[in-house]
Design brief:
By secondary structure, the protein is an alpha/beta fold. About 45% of the residues lie in helices and about 15% in strands. It contains 14 helices and eleven strands.
């Protein structure tokens, strides 16, 4: 799959952009595990042009994580164009526009998935951003605003006409948020349209290597994005790529997986500070499948998520690893 001048290889599987998740450390780990490309947390155009430091920090990328995309969102065409130019100076391989974020504080203001209620403005923003920068521009969106307005098969072609180089579709409407089951049928329908020439990337409810292979075979997509299933489990990309190449996954050992979690903690602390770094990484500790199925684990989980010192947290991880996994 090629996006502009960026070659991601055959059947690429990428890390989806996620707020408070896809920080530089996590992106790099996912790339090392086999992710074909990675996306930053989404960046507010308004905050970026106002030079809000917490936002401009999101533009920091490492050459080792390439190919990397920076994703922006907003509702004002002029602000989006100005933000796109600022992003281009940060040197990403791809600029992605977020027309899919469903959270109320974004969508209710007309940004993210809120743009799905104003298609003329959505297309205007897309066209202006494409014209404003020289790097490839892509879009990530949803099937439509609600179940009565699943417009992606038409919208995809309109976005292609604006000059984007690839389209990622999450198989839900905005009204669904993250409930129910992702519907890939319209993603497949869009991909199979002979008029659709740019790559179509599918997203939604992919949690295993087998599901990745099935989605490629069943829906014919050019690429796949994994989001929530990578939280606390960046090794999913290794399992996926092994399965696609060799027909079976080769899981890391438990010791290696614990090592990755500890690395995430250390690098989060180094990037921020001890207290906030641990606070930031709690989402990964809460979501990791490492602890699923362990009997009577509730108290240990609570203790892990309350720890605010690196030594205390690592001591608990050592005890859990030794007690339940030994040298595996």
């Amino acid at each position: 799959m090629i996006i502009g001048n960026v070659d991601l290889g055959e059947r690429p599987v990428s890390l989806a952009p996620m707020e408070d998740v896809t920080d530089p450390s996590f992106r790099l780990i996912c790339r090392e595990m086999g992710a074909a490309s990675v996306y930053t947390e989404f960046v507010s155009a308004e905050a970026l042009i106002r030079d809000i430091q917490s936002t401009t920090r999101k533009l920091t990328i490492n050459d080792k994580e390439r190919p990397v995309a920076i994703q922006i969102y907003g509702r004002d065409p002029e602000a989006m164009v100005e933000a796109a130019k600022i992003v281009e100076q940060a040197g990403p391989d791809i600029l992605d526009i977020n027309f899919g974020c469903p959270v109320k504080k974004v969508a209710s203001k007309g940004a993210g998935a809120g743009m799905l209620r104003d298609i003329p403005k959505l297309l205007d923003i897309t066209q202006r951003v494409v014209n404003a920068v020289s790097i490839p521009v892509t879009v990530k969106t949803r099937l439509g605003w609600d179940c009565e307005n699943k417009i992606i098969t038409t919208l995809g072609l309109q976005l292609q006409d604006c000059g984007i180089k690839a389209l990622t579709v999450h198989g839900r409407t905005r009204s669904q948020m993250y409930t129910g089951q992702a519907d890939w049928s319209l993603i497949g329908e869009l991909k199979s349209d002979p008029a659709m020439k740019i790559p179509v990337i599918g997203n939604g409810d992919i949690t295993s290597a087998e599901q990745v292979a099935d989605a490629f075979d069943k829906y014919g997509v050019d690429g796949i994005m994994i989001g929530r299933a990578a939280i606390g489990a960046p090794w999913i990309f290794k399992e996926v790529m092994d399965y696609l190449k060799f027909g079976k996954a080769s899981p890391l050992s438990y010791a290696e997986k614990f090592g990755i979690l500890r690395r995430q903690v250390r690098e989060s602390i180094d990037r921020i500070d001890e207290y906030r770094g641990i606070l930031h990484i709690r989402r990964h500790l809460a979501a990791t499948p490492l602890f699923k199925g362990i009997p009577n684990f509730r108290e240990s989980r609570i203790a892990l998520l309350r720890a605010d010192k690196e030594k205390d947290l690592f001591d608990m991880l050592d005890v859990i690893q030794e007690k339940y996994f030994g040298n595996e």
